[in-house]
Amino acid sequence: MSSRERILGRVRRALADVPADVPSDDSPIERGYLRAHGDSGVEETTDLLAENLADYRAIVHRCTLADLPATIAGMLAARGAKSVLVPPGLDREWLSAADAEQVADRAESTPHELDQVDSVVTACAVAVAETGTIVLDGSPDQGRRRITLVPDHHICVVRVPEQVVSSVPQALEHLDPARPLTWISGPSATSDIELDRVEGVHGPRTLEVVLVG
Predict the structure, then answer these.
(1) Organism's domain of life (predicted)?
(2) According to DSSP H, which parts of the chain are helical?
């Protein structure tokens, strides 16, 4: 008797006393859970997002769309960034005030080449207030996943209110599961070794989020 036959035999014996009228496992599951906790307005939801982003040690900025180029330029200058990686679909007006060299994302770029770039600026797909999470989906204004994992400094722009939701269930309604989704809650970090927090292990050491509204 093969391993497969033994396993299936155990399953059949376990199900032998199950009545025939019991619904099978492929029956629709009742999903009556809350989509969000409370009914917060835009300002309150955005404040919660900013608070939770900060709890994850992300650096949060707020500005208007008109002030965005100056805000990004100031962030790059404060970091001393001489080069910035730019996704192909990013609004170039966002970087119009920046002095750093703008490096285009190329498919043939190696991880070593990407590691030489000081910063990367992207948009996002959606931001979740309750968890302080930014989601990227690989759209042209966000670029490939690797460009947000290799450079040590990531600036992510979130449009308020259209890209801010309260909860994960609401975020999933905005996302295409077939796209390469990257869920970011603060800078990359791990505490695997003796519970000492080390940042920049699996991605950027510094995450700065600009809430634009």
Answers:
(1) Bacteria
(2) 3-14, 42-55, 68-79, 111-115, 168-174
